[in-house]
Every structure is written in structure tokens, then in C-alpha cells.
Design a protein that fits this description.
alpha/beta, two-stranded antiparallel sheet, 12 helices, about 50% helix, binds adenosine-5'-triphosphate, binds 2-(4-methyl-thiazol-5-yl)-ethanol, binds magnesium ion, EC 2.7.1.50
Length: about 260
């Protein structure tokens, strides 16, 4: 694993450019900032290319898809490809509507992404696996999530991080699993979006599978520590999770990470 990830983030302070949804941008910006990255949100497609030039990584979120957001995603994605910068994509509720599927397909064709992070329902939709997705939530399915993640990674030719009680990280061949988790993460809307931001920070440093796997553990490790303090208070848990993100060092992260 990447044993000096937190130190490297705080030294390099990667700039992460986001096409955020309209629900959780503050949570995402805080998540990036608290671990030591530098967040930037954008809203005007006319500056997507110029802002991508100064970014170390780009994070694209389908959550509040609309024509402007799609133009932002395409503009940033295409420039990032040309400049060989990493792109993280979150296909929020992609299986829910034909429009979301069409816009995702257009993005993946015009600007291939480095990493897709979604819950089981979203990754299943990309893999073409039958799944009972529930809006923005994972829903239920009968196929092994590891197979779902590997299929999506092979189809989309990128790294896939399938989040859930166990997070699955794969390039289509090698598979790592992060077993740290905190159920109150699912009570707070947007913690998947925060995970995307953290993965963007890490991708700004390296996109090797070990770095991405270590980065996937940052949020659940912080959330486990917060759960010890606030086992039944989801909003206090949320605040404490951010405190723990700010405090987290490599020693604590490596000690607490449960990877298989
Ligand atoms: N059932 C669960 N128990 C514990 N932790 C979970 C569970 N499901 C997801 N997580 C953790 O919650 C975080 C967010 O992942 P999740 O799968 O909920 O994203 P999401 O569905 O895209 O959320 P959102 O759309 O609200 O941002 C990850 O760190 C993941 O490990
Ligand atoms: C609630 C919600 N609706 C669209 S995006 C979003 C935040 C979770 O991704
Ligand atoms: Mg989500």
C-alpha cells in the first residue's frame, strides 16, 4: 500500500477541480481541504479548459446532470485527457434514467476516465448487470459485487471503486477490498461524493492501484474513529469525521486499514 500517502498529500496539496452536483459541493470541498488537498468548483463551461490546465486531477459528478454540467464534464474531461491528467467520474443514479445513461456514454466515448467510483447499483448499470438500483442508493442485486466491479472496469477500461460495506477496488484484473466501514456514512447524504473528492486528491499524486486503495480507506477509517465518539448521533458523527480527516496521519491510517 501507499504508506506515506497523507504526508505526500499535505506536501503536494493537489488541486482538485470539481464538476459537483447541486446537493453536496460544500461537503466535497471540505473533504478535499481537510485531508490537505485544494478544492475548486466550477460552473461556466467557458473556463473548463483553462481551469483543468491548473488542476492536478478532475472529479466529475453526474448527480445534478443538466446541459451546462454536461458541457463542463466534457470540456474538463477532454482537456484532462489531452494533458494526461487523471479524471474521476461518479455516475450518480446512472441506471435511473435514459438521459443519465446517454450522458455517461457520451462522456466515456469522448473523454475516457481514469477511475469510476459508484455504489453497487451504479457500477452494475455500467457493467450491464441486472440490479434493483434505488435512485442515488445502491439497492439490491444477486451478482457478486467483485464480479460487477471487474466487469465494469473491463468494459470502461479504467479503475473502478465500488463503494459499500466493503469497498472494492479493481483495474479489471487485480482486486483489493477495504473492509473498514461506518454505517452512519450512509445516513449522511453525499459521503460517496466526498469519497470521490478524496480519490481525486490521491489521483493527483498517483493512480496506481495501491495508492487508490489506500485512499479509499481514508474516509471509513476517519468515520470509524468518529463512530467511537458519537455511536448514535449522525450529525455529530459527520462533524467528527471531518475532525478525524484533518487529524489523520499515515501511522494511524496504516494501523487501522483493513485491506484484503
Ligand atoms: N452499508 C454500509 N456500511 C458501512 N459503510 C458503508 C456502507 N455503504 C457504504 N459505506 C461507506 O460509505 C461511503 C460512501 O459510499 P456509498 O456507497 O454510500 O456512496 P453513495 O451511495 O454514492 O453515497 P452518496 O450518493 O450519498 O454520496 C464509503 O466510504 C463506503 O465505504
Ligand atoms: C441527493 C442527490 N440527488 C442528486 S445528487 C445527490 C447527492 C448524492 O450524490
Ligand atoms: Mg452517490
Amino acid at each position: 500500500m501507499k504508506t506515506n500517502l497523507m504526508k505526500t498529500i499535505r506536501e503536494q496539496q493537489p488541486i482538485v477541480l470539481n464538476v459537483a452536483n447541486h446537493v453536496t459541493p460544500q461537503r466535497v470541498a471540505d473533504g478535499i481541504n481537510y485531508i490537505g488537498g485544494s478544492p475548486m468548483m466550477m460552473a461556466d463551461p467557458l473556463e473548463a479548459a483553462d481551469l483543468t490546465k491548473i488542476a492536478d486531477a478532475v472529479v466529475l459528478n453526474l448527480g445534478s446532470t443538466n446541459p451546462t454540467a454536461q458541457a463542463l464534464m466534457l470540456g474538463a474531461g477532454e482537456t484532462a485527457n489531452r494533458l494526461h491528467k487523471p479524471v474521476v467520474f461518479d455516475p450518480v443514479a446512472v441506471g435511473a434514467t435514459p438521459l443519465r445513461r446517454k450522458r455517461t456514454q457520451q462522456l466515456l466515448e469522448r473523454a475516457p476516465v481514469t477511475l469510476i467510483r459508484g455504489n453497487a447499483g451504479e457500477v452494475a448499470a455500467l457493467a450491464g448487470v441486472s440490479w434493483d438500483q434505488r435512485g442515488i442508493d445502491a439497492g439490491q442485486g444477486s451478482v457478486d459485487p467483485v464480479t460487477v466491479a471487474q466487469t465494469a472496469a473491463q468494459k470502461c477500461q479504467c479503475i473502478v471503486v465500488l463503494s459499500g460495506p466493503t469497498d472494492i477496488i479493481t483495474d479489471g484484473t487485480t482486486v483489493y477490498q477495504v473492509e473498514n466501514n461506518a454505517p452512519m456514512l450512509t445516513t449522511n447524504v453525499g459521503m460517496g461524493d466526498v469519497l470521490d473528492g478524496i480519490l481525486g486528491v490521491a489521483a493527483g499524486i498517483s493512480t496506481d492501484l495501491e495508492t487508490i486503495t489506500t485512499a479509499t480507506g481514508i474516509l471509513p477509517v476517519a468515520a470509524e474513529l468518529a463512530t467511537h465518539q458519537y455511536p448514535d448521533a449522525p450529525f455529530s458523527f459527520l462533524a467528527e469525521t471531518y475532525n478525524q480527516l484533518a487529524r489523520l496521519d499515515d501511522q494511524t491510517l496504516q494501523q487501522r486499514l483493513k485491506i484484503k
